[in-house]
Please model this.
Amino acid sequence: MGSVPAWARGYVACVVMAALACLAPLPDLRGPWGAVGLLAALYAGCEQITRCRFPGRRAPRDIGTYEGSGGCPLGWHSPLLLAGAFLLSPAAAALVAVPGALLARAERRPRGLRRVWRAARLAVAVWAASRTHRALGGEDTVVTHDFPYALAPAGAAVLVLCAVLTLLDGGILALAERVPVRNAWRGLFPRSIAPVAVHGLAGLMMAVLWHSHHGPLAALLVLLPMYVSGWVFAQYHRERAAHQATIRALVQAVDIKDGYTRGHSERVGQASMMIARELGMDDERVEVLRFAGILHDVGKLGVPTRLLRKNGPLTPEERRVIELHPEYGHEMVRGIGFLGEARAAILHHHERMDGSGYPYGLAGHQIPECARVVAVADAFDAMTSTRSYGRARPVATAVEELERCAGTHFDPVMVQAFVRALERHGWRPAVTADAPGQSGNVPPQGAPARAEAGS
Amino acid sequence: MRHPSVVLVHGCAALTAVAALAHTLWYGLDERGPALAFGVLVVAGELARWRGAEERESAPLGAAGALAYALLGANGGEPTRHGVAQAVTVVMAAALVGCVPHVARGRGSTADHLARRLLTVAFAAVCFQPLYNRGALAEWSGPPYVLLLVALLVLTTLCDAVLAAVLARARTGWPFGPLLRDELRALLGIGSAVCATGVVMSLAVAVVGLWALPVFSLPLLLTQLAFRRYAAVRTTYRQTIASLARATEIAGYTPAGHARRVAELSRAVGRELGLSEPELTVLEYAALMHDIGQLSLVDPVPSGATAVLPAEEQRRIALLGGAVVRQTGVDARVAVVVERQADPYREQPVSARIVRAVNAYEEKAREAGPGGPLKALEELRLGTARDYQPEVVESLARVLLNQRAVTSGVPPGDSAPAALRVKGGGGRTAV
Model:
């Protein structure tokens, strides 16, 4: 969000007003200022630790939510907020979140607006949660350690917290990030309820121990497991990003070696995914098929570049060498466990329905389903993208060609599914490698090809 | 044949278990409710156990539950009366039940795991229960009591780390120091979460009763989930790097399996030389990708053997390899090792020295046919003036000797050829 739309500014202003209204009863508060100060200072301290120790932890996806502890919209230190909500009056609980959120650094511009938004969002949500907790008589159950009855108000408070956060985050997604309105709220609540509930339990335990004769020190020990899981999740995200960057670099090397404009492999991955979705496969299989598409030509790393880019007709000998690439690819990725049936797709993506393909000349349903999907996706993108020696054809021509060859080369079921998917969603492949600002780990383009150009 | 220290540890654990069981059977079980609740918790924790690649504590919930029971002073405001023997018995019974599925599926070293769990619980209980039951801790209320529990658990986990390192040393023969260091480093991760959870559970049960157990198990399960996902993505990443390394083999630049063999041997040598776990990972990745620079050559080097090329050419290939590794987004330290693998050893970081020596050994041993390993080691020893670090070469010789002993089933020293056994210039006696 380089320029913030006026609507979004108005929205943030409204939320800030609401937050101020939540904080309004503060001057009359005669409550435990020591506890408020301690919790607020701890929250701010944890926020700073997060910034130093978990670099790159937050996804730069949207303005307010954090991507971190398993999809939790709060940080690992949110038990502090919830403990505040269970211990203090609503206004005081809302105050706990404010200094930490205001002091935390925002990664992207406009930083000031982001900070204010985060503080206001948390203050409103925590106020609502605390208010719910009080209304259900949670305060007494915490003081008298009345288990299991303390769980009910705490559970209700967690639900309210999650609902308010979902509501506010969806609004900012729709207004500032221009996510379509019907998509803005989708999945936010189910994704965040489980981690927030776990944090809620930790917060409840903190509140109870805080009130007991063991005192705040015991309560702080609750934070340690949360810190460790936050730290490990950050490592997990870093390692996963590195892994994706490695795969991306690998397929870019293949694309460049093969003379495609870059992104061919990723586009084949997207087309495979579209077909798989259209066929109603489950999410896990769709993801495997995406990888099958992305890595389908990885065996070309083993084929000399001069053969791949040769302009004239190939001799039978040269053709045989090129036709080894599915087997090379299969040999390479054989040891990667998570690819599953994608490995079969890599081996068989040049088989044809009439049995005239390679490497094994399988026919019809002998060819694994995933290989039939990738074959259609590969042929389509080969026709519609520019190669070093050929112009791209329009989508309509490519679809005609696919339909003409359905039954002989391609599985008609896959072709029909792809045509339906194209009619529904169109063909707007977004290749992550092209997107500026996402190139954190991604190497500059073209370099692997330079390194291999002589081979 | 078992290593004496393994026998000692298992013997101690068995003796403790028998004594505790006999005591409990004789005097009966006090306070069945808490015993059952903690027993169930430990069983659940053991059932959720997993074999992580890196993490030492594979059943954090089981460990936390067991330690909390050993340190349990009160239940819902009422003092408890269970003693050391009962704590050990309950944890042992629960851990045995929880192990059944793992044993049935034939996974994991269950005996070591059980012995450690039993001894740590016994240690914590012996330190705490007699003091508490005699009323010596009555005036320690509030923060001092919390700090006492924390200190006790820290001490317990330190002992556990030593125990784990002793067992690992006996099983693998790797040096004790680095093993202990890795165990202690793991303590900072999941170990601290286990300690904190153990203390919080024991305190929370004292305040609110047994309801605290399910409530505070979930955060630790979240931690375990985080570790599992991290371990899974690390495994996947390692497999991807191994595939990338296979690109040179498929392109016909290096013989099949070369990168994998160099990686395994490098890891063993690095372990022998006392590298830490993160350093070993960098070393392994670098060893897997050490030949990747060859992808940029016009013609393959005959059978991929870079060790016989002129030094300038070797260095050029190494630099190209470093450039490729940088582009793949792998850790920059890996790229440095790949780049420096052809430098004289005095200018290299230690990982690059290992990769250089092991790669040269692998290539020479392969070319020389039968008796190759001996000839290769001999050649490496002749090159220790400039190319290969003498310590690395000797460490490699020891690792090979151990591997021979393991594969042929003969203890080292009995049948090993002199060239492998004798240090320094002993290679001359090669058969």
The beta strands of chain B are 74-75, 78-79. Chain B touches chain A through 67 residues (CB under 8 Å).
